[in-house]
């Protein structure tokens, strides 16, 4: 089979070819008809001069329904009328699968279709080159993350997604009935990646699903997302972790710019690789920026969608797409983050990209007694975390790590307005299928 390569890989020299694809469009001008045949790589014109081809073949081809799947055999001819510079004059065809009429939504029609309709018919939505291109890019981003991590000696791990205790607070836990015992869907690999720091596998990363029972319906929250987590031992300070994230994101962007050219062109996107090091803002500075622009926030509050957007706008004016926010109050951060003793602050950070948090992380509390104290301070029962805590009792090196939302990262790289655009089959408070 010959695929439709937009590199123009079908040439006149191929003679007779068989091409397979979806019937994107049929134009019947009476004496001559055209089919636009589409596959993963692009489109090809099938040209049918009525007088020159078998009448039955002409009839069957011109009566096909849009989006039917066919295999066409014919002769390749040069053509200055088509983008590829060639066209195929059919001599035979096979109908592999006839598409129903009407289509649930168009593939090439220039009408704005609601997000819900698109997601309900995602199989059809993904036939649009500009939608498909997002997932070609996403696949590259995930591949590049793995490359960057391997280059830095990180071991690729998989941790359980059915767990006995939540790592990120009770409010967003999904419960599961595990053979009569209570269990939950993992909100993050936090506890496991930290436990591994006590083993000698001192640099680990995972790209896997994370589940959060998010009750809000926003353009950046879903209930199942893909998290790129990293954890590294023997750090001196949280800046060591920040430097590693920066290196990973830089590697992704620099290489995506080159390797993703073809798909970025389809999307009309250019990648700007931010200068390093990424600027640092303190939480207090950010809070002030948001308050100065009218947000009613007080010390310790989450900056929230609005606050993050304001800071994003201010940073964009200075030409900064990616920036760290540091020195969060310890109260605002989870139990596993190390406190900056006597300051009320924590050794934590967020990384924001174009006005949205894409990552958080920090140095962890690796000292067993302090960790237990922090749990108690947060109202957690250390007994619920016995297996996690055990890993801290017999020699745990200083360590830190991060979690990056892959869906948000891809959405921000491509300036997509909603994180769902970067997820094949998104899950949210109102959506469980497809
Ligand atoms: P946090 O809870 O901040 O940190 O999550 C890390 C990153 O995951 C993404 N994310 C989400 N993406 C889409 N929908 C959601 N509902 C959602 N929730 C989170 C965001 C966010 O920045 N264990 C820590 C990380 C660490 O310290 O290592 C954690 O999970 O991009």
Architecture blueprint of SSEs:
Blueprint (H helix, E strand, L loop, with lengths): L15 E13 L3 E8 L2 E8 L5 H8 L6 E10 L7 E12 L17 H6 L1 H4 L3 H23 L3 E2 L5 E2 L11 E4 L2 E5 L4 H7 L6 E9 L12 E10 L4 H22 L1 H7 L12 E3 H10 L11 H14 L4 E5 L12 E2 L4 E2 L1 E6 L2 E8 L4 H10 L8 H5 L8 E7 H8 L21
Parallel strand pairs: 6-10, 12-13
Antiparallel strand pairs: 1-2, 1-4, 2-3, 4-5, 7-9, 8-9, 10-11, 11-18, 13-16, 14-15, 16-17, 17-18
Helix pairs in contact: 4-6, 4-7, 8-9
This protein binds aspartyl-adenosine-5'-monophosphate.
Structure explained in plain terms:
By secondary structure, this protein is of the alpha+beta class. The chain folds into two domains: 94 residues, OB fold (Dihydrolipoamide Acetyltransferase, E2P); 300 residues, 2-Layer Sandwich (BirA Bifunctional Protein, domain 2). The strands form four sheets. It has an eight-stranded mixed β-sheet, with helices on both faces. A five-stranded antiparallel β-sheet has the order 3-2-1-4-5. It has a three-stranded antiparallel β-sheet with strand order 7-9-8, with no helix packed on it. Helix 4 runs antiparallel to helix 7. The relative contact order is 0.11. The mean pLDDT is 95.
Number of domains: 2
What is the number of helical segments per DSSP (H or I, 4+ residues)?
A: 12
Shape: elongated
Proper CATH architecture of the largest domain:
2-Layer Sandwich
The hetero compounds bound to this protein are: aspartyl-adenosine-5'-monophosphate
* H-E string: EEEHEEHHHEEEEHEEHHEHHEEEEEHHEH
- Strand arrangement within the widest β-sheet reads 6-10-11-18-17-16-13-12
Reported by name, the CATH topology of the largest domain is BirA Bifunctional Protein, domain 2
Low-confidence stretches: none
The CATH homologous superfamily of the largest domain is called Bira Bifunctional Protein, Domain 2
CATH class of the largest domain: Alpha Beta
End-to-end C-alpha gap: 32 Å
Give the oligomeric state of the chains in this entry, treating copies of one chain as homo and distinct chains as hetero.
single chain
């Amino acid at each position: 089979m010959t695929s439709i390569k937009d590199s123009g890989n079908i040439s006149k020299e191929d003679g007779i070819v068989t091409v397979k694809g979806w019937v994107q469009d049929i134009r019947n001008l009476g004496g001559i008809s055209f089919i636009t045949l589409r596959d993963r790589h692009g489109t090809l014109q099938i040209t049918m001069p009525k007088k020159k081809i078998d009448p039955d073949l002409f009839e069957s081809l011109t009566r096909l329904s849009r989006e039917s799947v066919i295999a066409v055999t014919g002769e390749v001819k040069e053509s200055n009328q088509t983008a590829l510079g060639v066209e195929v004059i059919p001599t035979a065809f096979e109908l592999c699968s006839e598409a129903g009429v009407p289509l649930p939504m168009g593939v090439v029609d220039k009408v704005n279709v609601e997000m819900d309709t698109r997601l309900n018919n995602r199989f059809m939505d993904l036939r649009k080159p500009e939608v498909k291109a997002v997932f070609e890019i996403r696949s590259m981003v995930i591949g590049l993350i793995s490359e960057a991590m391997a280059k830095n000696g990180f071991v690729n791990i998989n941790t359980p997604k059915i767990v006995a205790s939540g790592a990120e607070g009770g409010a967003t836990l999904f419960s599961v009935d595990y053979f009569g015992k209570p269990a939950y869907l993992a909100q993050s690999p936090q506890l496991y990646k930290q436990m591994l720091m006590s083993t000698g596998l001192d640099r680990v990363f995972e790209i896997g699903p994370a589940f959060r029972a998010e009750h809000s319906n926003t353009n950046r929250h879903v209930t199942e997302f893909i998290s790129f987590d990293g954890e590294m031992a023997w750090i001196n300070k949280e800046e060591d972790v920040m430097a590693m994230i920066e290196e990973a994101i830089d590697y992704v962007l620099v290489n995506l710019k080159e390797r993703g050219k073809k798909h970025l062109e389809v999307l009309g996107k250019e990648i700007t690789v931010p200068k390093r090091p990424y600027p640092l803002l303190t939480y207090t500075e950010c809070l002030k920026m948001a308050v100065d622009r009218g947000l009613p926030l007080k010390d310790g509050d989450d900056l929230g969608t609005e606050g993050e957007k304001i800071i994003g706008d201010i940073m964009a004016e200075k030409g900064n797409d990616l920036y760290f926010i540091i020195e969060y109050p310890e109260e605002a951060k989870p139990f596993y983050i190390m406190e900056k003793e006597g300051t009320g602050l924590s050794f934590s950070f967020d990384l924001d990209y174009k006005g949205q948090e894409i990552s958080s992380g920090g140095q962890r509390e690796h000292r067993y007694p302090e960790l237990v104290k922090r749990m108690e301070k947060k109202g957690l029962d250390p007994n619920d975390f016995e297996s996690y805590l055990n890993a801290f009792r017999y020699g745990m090196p200083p360590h830190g790590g991060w979690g990056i939302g892959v869906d948000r990262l891809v959405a921000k790289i491509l300036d997509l307005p909603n994180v769902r655009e970067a997820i094949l089959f998104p899950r949210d408070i109102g959506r469980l299928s497809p």
